[in-house]
Amino acid sequence: MAPLLPTVLWAQRSDKLYLTIDVQDVKEQTCDLQDGKLVFTGKAGGEAKDYALDLEFYAEVDASSEDSKVSVTARNVFIIIRKKDLGHWPRLCKESGKHLSHIKCDWSKWVDEDEEDEKPEADYGGQGAGGALASSAPTPYAPWTSTSLAAAAWVAWAEWVAWGAWGAWAG
Asked: Where do the CS domain residues begin and end (predicted)?
């Protein structure tokens, strides 16, 4: 059986790429970062399904840089890659087309080129080997804490009562 193709989320800065390979509970993984490409293989999930990924980058990266790091967690594989030349890429891969539908933008880490100087870079790199990346990486659901959900529910209930809906429902 042919290996499955994992979903890849990507974001960039002028000097780095951020890749998240969406494979949960990955085992026996290999991640071969070269100056022009990334090759990933691994077994993931309870059934240990085979996954394989071969990405040819839009431009050269610096695979030997100390800033290029891989972090494997129970939820995914997160990779920070240093670009050889500064600048924003129009896409992640050299080629484009519908066959690359498994590659998606990671909007939680994305910063537009003209806003890069205004927004400080989050510290995705201080994770240690195999570290707890999820503990410091921002999530798109961060504002939805139990406190804010309770407050939203309270406001919705108060508006419902104020509209007289309680009387119509109860009576």
From this structure: 3-93
pTM for the model stands at: 0.68
* β 103-105/7-12 pair status: parallel
The b/e string for 18-57 (b: 16+ C-beta within 10 A; e otherwise) is: bbbbebeebeebebebeeeebebbbbbeeeeeebebebeb
Which run of H or E residues covers position 48? none
Q: Report the candidate in 123, 127, 111, 79 with the shortest Cα–Cα distance to residue 12.
A: 111
Q: What's the CA dihedral at 127, 133, 135, 140 to 10 degrees? A: 140
Chain centroid to CA 97: 21
Contact call for residues 138 and 108 (beta carbons, < 8 A): yes
For the stretch 105-151, pLDDT in tens is 998 888 877 777 666 566 554 443 343 333 334 334 444 444 555 66
Q: Exposed (0-12), middle (13-18) or buried (19+): which is 82, by Cβ within 10 Å? A: middle
Residues 83 and 4: their CA atoms lie apart, in Å, by 28
Helix (H, G, I), strand (E, B) or coil at 165: helix
